[in-house]
Structure formats: C-alpha cells, structure tokens
Specification:
The chain contains four helices and eleven strands; from the N terminus they run H-H-E-E-E-E-E-E-E-E-H-E-E-E-H. The protein is α/β, with parallel strands linked by helices and 255 residues long. The strands form two sheets. Strands 3-5-6-10-7 form a five-stranded mixed barrel. Strands 1-11 form a two-stranded antiparallel ribbon. A hairpin with a 3-residue loop joins strand 5 and strand 6. Helix 2 runs antiparallel to helix 4. The longest helix is centred in the last third of the chain and has 33 residues. The protein starts with a helix and ends in a 10-residue tail after the last helix.
C-alpha cells in the first residue's frame, strides 16, 4: 500500500490535492473577510459646516445622519451655568465614569444663542478642576465643532458618592434641563476647540455597514469545493490501492 501511495503518479496527485485544498480554503477565508468588513461602520461624507440651529432643536431628537456633522453657532457663553463633566478623557469615544475616574474633566458651557435658547458646548478638556483654562471667554463668540447626541444618564458607571456641586457625570439633555431651570436647552451638544483647553477628540460622521450575504455564500461555496477536492483525492487513492491489491490475470496459454 505504501509503495502505491508513494508512486510518482500518486505523488503528483497528492501535491495537486494539497494545492487545490489550500487555495480553496484561502479563497473562502478571503470572501469571509469581505463579508465581515462589509458590516463595519464606514466614513461618510463630511459636508460643509451648517448652523447648529438647523440640526438641533428644543424637545426633538437629533437625526442619526446629523451626529458628527460640523456645525457653527454664534452667541455668548453663560459663565454662571458652566459645568465640569467629571471622570473624562480628551476623547468622546473613551469610556467615562468610574473606569476613567480622576482622568480629567470636559468643560461644558452653555452658549446663549440669539433666539433665547442654550446650546451645550464642550469647549475642551482639563486635567484638574481648578485649571485656569476653564475661564469663560466674554462677549460674542462664534463656535465651530461637531454635533453629538446627548448621553444617557445611565451611559456611565456613576460614582456612588456623587460628584461635587458644579459637576455632572454625563452630558444629558434631560439632566441639563433640570440644572438650567427656566432655560430652553437644545438637544445634544457641540464638541468645539477653544484656545487654552486641550481639544476633545471627536470623529467625523460614519455610516453603518451593510452585510453582503453574497460574499458569505461565496465563502461557503469555496469550502464546499475544498471538501469535494478531498473526496475526489480519497476516491482516486482508494481505487489505486484496490487496484494494487488485485491479483494479476493469468497469462493465456497458447493452445
């Protein structure tokens, strides 16, 4: 049997079978990778800045396509209502709450717009609550940044003992309405860049990926082909071994 399996003709079959098997497995893995990548969020177009009033209103939700959009707003900061968002890193995507305890603060200041509404603005990040950079610029200002949806009050693991007065743990529109009583607060918040403060990193808009099930089917096909190649190799090897074990026909005697 071993002699049959190692015959030159069979060795060529083994090499061919291995090459086909590896190729089909790799092709299937490639198609599976295409399928997995299709479901990942992808960068969307980043349109020119628009007035924040056109994307954020009082009492209405922010549309998903507006999250991350570049916006501008003009008005004056309300220094008396400024807050610090505790336990934050200089990145919107970084987790907050106890996992980032004592990692710093977002400086959250309401911008009073010309129509009497307030737009929450994260002006930047500081490491300490008494950082002089938190001083509020006086007079009229024009803010440029990216719009974000409000955070849920349960979106972070809160401190059991709470935070000092003048601090919050999330940028929640519902919570800000209660803190800034009597004010019309627009939904969401703007992440801006202010001189003297460390910028808070914020991403451009993204779109959700759409899974391409066709590629998953292609991957399955290639792996089925690989299984069929193994079956055919086994079939040829089995026949060769059987043939080698069959007795040779007796020579026909001349009469």
């Amino acid at each position: 049997m071993l002699r049959t399996l190692l015959a030159p003709r069979m060795l060529g079959l083994h090499v061919l079978a291995i090459g086909v098997l590896v190729s089909f497995i790799l092709l299937g893995r490639w198609q599976l990778g295409v399928f997995e990548d299709s479901g990942k969020p992808a960068s969307a177009t980043d349109p020119a800045p628009v007035a924040v009033e056109s994307l954020s209103a009082v009492g209405t939700q922010i549309e998903g396509t507006s999250v991350g959009r570049r916006v501008t707003a003009s008005g004056s900061y309300d220094a008396a209502r400024q807050l610090l968002v505790a336990d934050r890193r200089p990145d919107v995507a970084a987790p907050g709450g106890n996992v980032s305890r004592d990692q710093g603060y977002w400086v959250l200041t309401p911008l009073a717009l010309g129509d009497g509404t307030l737009m929450p603005v994260v002006r930047g990040w500081v490491a300490k609550a008494d950082d002089p950079g938190i001083a509020v610029p006086p007079g009229e200002v024009t803010v440029s940044g990216r719009l974000r949806s409000p955070e849920g009050t349960d979106s972070v693991q809160r401190r059991a003992e709470g935070v000092p007065e003048g601090q919050v743990q999330t940028v929640s529109t519902a919570e800000l309405i209660n803190l800034w009583r009597g004010q019309k607060v627009r939904n969401g918040f703007v992440v801006a860049q202010t001189p003297g403060l460390t910028p808070v990193k914020v991403s451009a808009p993204v779109t959700g990926g759409t899974l391409t099930w066709r590629n998953l089917a292609y991957a399955a096909n290639w792996w089925i082909f690989a299984g069929f190649a193994v079956f055919m190799w086994f079939h040829f090897v089995r026949d060769a071994v059987r043939s080698s074990k069959s007795p040779e026909p007796e020579a026909v005697l001349e009469s």
